[in-house]
């Protein structure tokens, strides 16, 4: 027996120091959290470019009145697929990529809890993405029911709707596995001495996000499964002809959909909460209140879903409840914004690229928050519902929120990932032109919405022409900047071109990730690190 144990120990020792796999095997069979994080980030950027091309198709059509580029049916396919791909294919996987890379480094864990499941949850996404992309080539074209997939339209679509439902099921399974992995890793694998209330904010926001995912992805699965059985198995959940109710679909969908928007923004809050203290050279103001605010946002997100449905004829009592509950979410969100500003207040601030993205995030995300507060009011929303005002609002939170934070996180942590510094000048060009083009794209859409221009229309009256032209020009500029980012920032970093990054490129950055060399070695923390009292430094 002892011989067997000795052999096992020797084998374990060999395993600790085995060479990292190389070539395609390294990626296909990846179980290392860093490699899987990289795969997620590459996948999400490819999907981001794909979704972006669809968006540019939409904006090309809307450049001037009349039908120029696509017919209305294809236009609706573009809007639907743009939404699905950006939400499920770009933003969510990008944040999971950050989680895979950074959570083990930040809590002193050797890897994610379930390494093989981690691999599986990534590779599930690839066929799902292929199915979504291929739906354009199916009879009748891609789904054209809007990304919300409302009945009764979904009950009338061609076979691509079944493909989209299948793809969403697979993506949902991937998300649930990723969330389980993140929760178990954070709760069970923190280094000794790192209590929950000493964890970096990024880990906190992801822990809460992972619980949200596990709570709401099955609700989406239920909604689309009911759609599937309505389509093929004679049920009538949403078909009024058989006694069903299309509005019930909206309730089920938005019970998923509203927490989903917080799934897309909470990890962004975490990234910004890492960047701002580092470049303000101060500790994050009100850490405890930030944790509680994040949890409050998550809990409140479950009781506000029907603010998407003020125009469905719900009773005034229901409208009032959802209106006040929605306005309440502004309180913990405001706590976060004020805490970020208080962190910067009287700090010794410098504006390297990550800080520019973080400050830009606060500015534009707060604008998106205010327009959300306006839309939360039932009498106003009944005028603005399904107009471009709503499009402007959620792009200010999703693009200027999630995407800006992702860019900030890339510039902040890329030196640790790659071992080289990105070009500061190119990073700043990317930031300023993206910020300017973003606002040129989406700010005019507030006015279009206030003037009554509806969403998802391929054509419009002459009075909307000028603002649409400005918006389309901004969209092409913004798209061009992301190609610039790929060619002149990301690729040089991936190829290791640039000056060598020090272990701690940002002097005031705190956290365990800055205690390992740059680039981070393939295996980190094979023995758990011993932490100082603040749980941000390794002793010895």
Automatic annotation (TrEMBL):
GO cellular component: a single term: respiratory chain complex IV
Cytochrome oxidase subunit I profile domain location: 18-532
SUPFAM superfamilies associated with the record: Cytochrome c oxidase subunit I-like
A Pfam short name: COX1
Domain of life: Bacteria
GO molecular-function term, one example from the UniProt record: cytochrome-c oxidase activity
Xref: CDD domains: Cyt_c_Oxidase_I
Alphabetized InterPro entries for the sequence: Cyt_c_oxase-like_su1_dom, Cyt_c_oxase-like_su1_sf, Cyt_C_Oxase_1, Cyt_c_Oxase_su1_BS, Cyt_c_oxase_su1_dom, Cyt_c_oxidase_su1_bac
Chief site of localization: membrane
Keywords per UniProt: Cell membrane, Copper, Electron transport, Heme, Iron, Membrane, Metal-binding, Respiratory chain, Translocase, Transmembrane, Transmembrane helix, Transport
Pathway: Energy metabolism; oxidative phosphorylation
Chain residue ranges for the region called Disordered: 520-540
EC number(s) from the headed UniProt entry: 7.1.1.9
Compartment(s) where it occurs, according to its Swiss-Prot or TrEMBL record: Cell membrane; Membrane
Membrane topology: Multi-pass membrane protein
Catalysed reaction, written as an equation: 4 Fe(II)-[cytochrome c] + O2 + 8 H(+)(in) = 4 Fe(III)-[cytochrome c] + 2 H2O + 4 H(+)(out)
GO terms of biological process kind: electron transport coupled proton transport; oxidative phosphorylation; respiratory electron transport chain
Protein family: Belongs to the heme-copper respiratory oxidase family.
UniProt protein name: Cytochrome c oxidase subunit 1
Source organism per UniProt: Tepidicella xavieri
């Amino acid at each position: 027996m002892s011989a067997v144990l000795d052999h096992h120990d020797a084998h374990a020792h060999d395993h600790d120091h085995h060479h990292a796999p190389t070539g395609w095997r390294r990626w296909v069979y990846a179980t290392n959290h860093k490699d899987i994080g990289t795969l997620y980030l590459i996948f999400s950027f490819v999907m981001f470019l794909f979704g972006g091309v669809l968006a540019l198709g939409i904006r090309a059509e809307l450049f001037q009145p009349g039908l120029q580029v696509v017919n209305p049916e294809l236009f609706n396919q573009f809007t639907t697929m743009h939404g699905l791909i950006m939400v499920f294919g770009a933003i969510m996987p990008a944040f999971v990529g950050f989680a895979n890379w950074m959570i083990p480094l930040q809590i002193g864990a050797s890897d994610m809890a379930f390494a093989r499941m981690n691999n599986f949850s990534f590779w599930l996404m690839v066929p799902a993405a292929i199915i979504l992309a291929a739906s354009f080539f199916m009879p009748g074209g891609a789904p054209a029911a809007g990304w919300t997939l409302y009945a009764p339209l979904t009950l009338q679509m061609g076979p691509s709707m079944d493909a989209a439902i299948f793809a969403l099921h697979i993506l949902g399974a991937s998300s649930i596995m990723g969330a389980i992995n993140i929760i178990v890793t954070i709760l069970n694998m923190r280094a000794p001495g790192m209590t929950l209330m000493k964890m970096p904010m990024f880990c906190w926001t992801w822990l809460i996000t992972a619980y949200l995912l596990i709570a709401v992805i099955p609700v989406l699965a239920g909604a689309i499964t009911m759609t599937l059985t309505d389509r093929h198995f004679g049920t009538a959940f949403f078909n009024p002809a058989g006694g069903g109710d299309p509005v019930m679909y909206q309730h089920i969908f938005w019970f998923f959909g509203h927490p989903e928007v917080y799934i897309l923004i909470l990890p962004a809050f975490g990234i910004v909460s890492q960047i701002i203290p580092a470049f303000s050279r101060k500790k994050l103001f009100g850490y405890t209140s930030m944790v509680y605010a994040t949890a409050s946002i998550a809990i409140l997100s479950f009781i506000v879903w029907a603010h998407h449905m003020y125009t469905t004829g719900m009773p005034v009592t229901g409208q009032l409840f959802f209106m006040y509950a929605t306005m309440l979410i502004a309180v913990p969100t405001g706590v976060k914004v004020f805490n970020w500003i208080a962190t910067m207040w009287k700090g010794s601030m410098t504006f390297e690229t990550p800080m520019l993205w973080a400050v830009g995030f606060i500015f534009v995300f707060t604008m998106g928050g205010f327009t959300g507060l306006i839309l939360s009011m039932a009498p106003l929303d009944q005028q603005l519902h399904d107009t471009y005002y709503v499009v402007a609002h959620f792009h200010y939170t999703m693009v200027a929120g999630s995407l800006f934070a992702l860019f900030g996180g890339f510039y902040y942590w890329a030196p640790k990932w790659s071992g080289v510094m990105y070009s500061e000048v190119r990073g700043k060009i990317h930031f300023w032109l993206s910020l300017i083009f973003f606002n040129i794209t989406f700010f005019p859409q507030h006015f279009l919405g206030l003037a009554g221009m509806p969403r998802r229309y391929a054509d419009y009256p002459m009075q909307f022409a000028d603002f649409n032209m400005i918006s389309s020009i901004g969209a092409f500029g913004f798209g061009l900047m992301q190609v610039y980012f790929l060619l002149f920032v990301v690729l040089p970093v991936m190829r290791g071109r640039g000056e060598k990054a020090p272990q701690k490129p940002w002097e005031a950055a705190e956290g365990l990730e800055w205690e390992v060399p740059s680039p981070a070695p393939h295996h980190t923390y094979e023995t758990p690190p011993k932490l100082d009292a603040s749980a941000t430094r390794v002793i010895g």
